[in-house]
User: Which sequence fits this backbone?
């Protein structure tokens, strides 16, 4: 009987504490927004080298079977006609997720390094400012690579057309740096995510695992300077580099509304990245 009374007293004492604790609700997580609707290329601009803006030369970028496809069946020779499909809205703080697979054979005239090679270009220039003969937009490239059947070939690497970045406190001017992802061979689907926090930190993920991290994305400096102008925002585009590739999902979470609240931004990012998202085959 005495134990029962003590138990009831303990419940009464702790109940207010439990109530107070539960009143603090976590920040609602933002939802994924589909950049590609599986129907058409509405909301995207096309820029292919040697061609005018929105000239989709040889139907390079197309939608088939609910997928965004990059194809070269109408090319007789690639002839360094690198292409980019630009989303019309620009972003600064965000998490982008792309699910892709390489397929088929590289088109005649494609460079050896472009075998099973594509990319997600972030913090990029506006395609309206690109020259007709310009090959790549000034941007940070999240390089997508498929296995060649010979040795390691990581994906979610970084390349830097017209840019550079900081890693481990050092300015990195090397054009391409490999991630520590595994090699994804064959025609399997792979999910790559990129966390972009303005001009501070960028993190690459491959099938839910962090594979590369760096800071201070910036333009190539002029006049012999060591550092360039920090890149706070820019366009997002998908590449055409001579090997057929499918994208079945291109989605984004805009984190801009948390950008001025570091504590809340960290909370939201930590919760988002606690989930390991892996491409299903």
Assistant:
């Amino acid at each position: 009987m005495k134990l029962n009374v003590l138990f009831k007293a303990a419940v009464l004492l702790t109940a207010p504490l439990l109530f107070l604790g539960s009143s603090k609700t976590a920040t609602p997580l933002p939802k994924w927004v589909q950049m590609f609707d599986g129907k058409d290329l509405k909301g995207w601009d096309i820029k292919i080298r040697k061609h005018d803006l929105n000239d989709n030369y040889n139907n390079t970028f197309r939608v088939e079977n609910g997928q965004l496809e990059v194809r070269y069946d109408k090319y007789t020779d690639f002839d360094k006609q690198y292409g980019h499909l630009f989303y019309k809205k620009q972003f600064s703080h965000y998490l982008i997720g792309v699910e892709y697979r390489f397929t088929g054979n590289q088109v005649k005239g494609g460079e050896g390094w472009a075998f099973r090679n594509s990319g997600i270009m972030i913090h990029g220039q506006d395609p309206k400012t690109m020259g007709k003969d310009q090959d790549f937009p000034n941007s940070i490239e999240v390089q997508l690579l498929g296995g060649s059947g010979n040795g390691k070939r990581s994906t979610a690497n970084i390349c830097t057309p017209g840019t550079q970045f900081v890693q481990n406190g050092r300015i990195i001017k090397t054009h391409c740096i490999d991630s520590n992802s595994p090699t994804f061979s064959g025609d399997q689907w792979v999910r790559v995510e990129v966390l972009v926090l303005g001009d501070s930190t960028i993190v690459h993920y491959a099938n839910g695992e962090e594979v590369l991290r760096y800071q201070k994305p910036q333009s190539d400096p002029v006049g012999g300077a060591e550092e360039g102008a920090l890149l706070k925002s820019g366009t997002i585009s998908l590449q055409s580099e001579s090997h057929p590739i499918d994208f079945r999902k291109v989605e984004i979470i805009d984190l801009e509304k948390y950008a001025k609240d570091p504590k809340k931004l960290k909370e939201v990012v930590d919760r988002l990245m606690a989930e390991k998202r892996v491409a299903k085959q």
